[in-house]
């Protein structure tokens, strides 16, 4: 905090590895003059040491307005320009060495190896599908290179927690059990695709795995997630006992999506309605070609959580165990106390934004190469596993080979499938089995054209009939 003539008067922020939380607001409100206290934890004790008489005379008067209830009057004209940056929680360094043994998560070999294999699978799938788009075999694709540690967040959730994604969270879906075949079928939009070929590639969704279908329109999932979490809270309140596990909502989005108005409405709703939702912002430094430095002036996205009175954690998004621990803690707060939590996971987008982008137009290739070499989420986890004796160069070679074979097999199978019948375009619009007269008219027109020009529409590539609604 600075006075108008620039004199430093006081600064306050949280120490490292401490959840940045509204819980501490209660004593903050008792302590308007914070000079000399390095962390919030030690302050209440110091406050008690102040003699009663001097406290009474030195304490400013509370400003009693309904809009803000924790403020005190001051006779100094103060402009608050800056707080210390929120610290970034890390468990492993870039060599996979745990810095504080107390922070190492209690994950067993099976889970740790599973997460690592899923990271390799993500890379293998990205490579094959990216190339497939380049060869014109699918229309579009987005890779997750550099952001593989996000899988740690999915591993910290309960399998029935509801996930709202943006598009670069295929790792979370893979961890939930979405098969390679299901990924490939969606990207091909073939007759086996759960979405019946009506979405762009990478717009996955599956009711069985509680993963809400991706929407291209940026940030729409964030208020939807607050609403879904509110619904879960109401259902939880009405539930009859322990038979149903308590659930929360996980909402993934990027730093660019956090610039949309929807982000702000969603956070405010979740805070005021006390919704059990985790807002997980993948801050990968770019919104397509716009670097974070041109996107906002504040302390990243995390500082906005505090502004909304939301518990906030910033973590190293390339450290799978920091991501895992942060999400586990957030889930405890969400499920146990109906508290929304914002996690800002700092990472770097190694790939182009999508197959429609060439990032060499706005960042140097050496910058990307540097990140790949210096801070790779897979290398960090691999080194950690090797140090435990849970992984070896031999296992690495075999896993790389087997996983690539499985990815190629699923890819070949998806490519062989027919496309869904054009009739499917008109199905599932309404819950009722019949479609509306207007839609029936459009369907008749389209099917008439398809039958009239079968070569133009390559009708041999489509299933003959279909349509769960007629
Ligand atoms: C409402 C809206 N505006 C713009 C776009 C175009 N668009 C698609 S992705 C994107 C950038 C998003 O960046 P970020 O949220 O950081 O996610 P990232 O791609 O980095 O994972 C933009 C601007 C869109 N899809 N929807
Ligand atoms: Mg981004």
TrEMBL record:
Gene Ontology biological process terms, A to Z: branched-chain amino acid catabolic process
UniProt domain Dehydrogenase E1 component: residue ranges: 117-422
GO molecular function: branched-chain 2-oxo acid dehydrogenase activity; metal ion binding
Cellular compartments per GO CC: mitochondrial matrix
Signal sequence, start to end: none
Swiss-Prot/TrEMBL keywords: Metal-binding, Mitochondrion, Oxidoreductase, Potassium, Thiamine pyrophosphate, Transit peptide
Record's keyword annotation contains Thylakoid: no
Transit peptide found in the keyword field: yes
Cofactor: thiamine diphosphate
Catalysis performed (reactions): N(6)-[(R)-lipoyl]-L-lysyl-[protein] + 3-methyl-2-oxobutanoate + H(+) = N(6)-[(R)-S(8)-2-methylpropanoyldihydrolipoyl]-L-lysyl-[protein] + CO2
InterPro entries from the UniProt entry: Alpha-ketoacid_DH_E1_comp (IPR050771), DH_E1 (IPR001017), THDP-binding (IPR029061)
Family: Belongs to the BCKDHA family.
Identification of the protein by name: 2-oxoisovalerate dehydrogenase subunit alpha
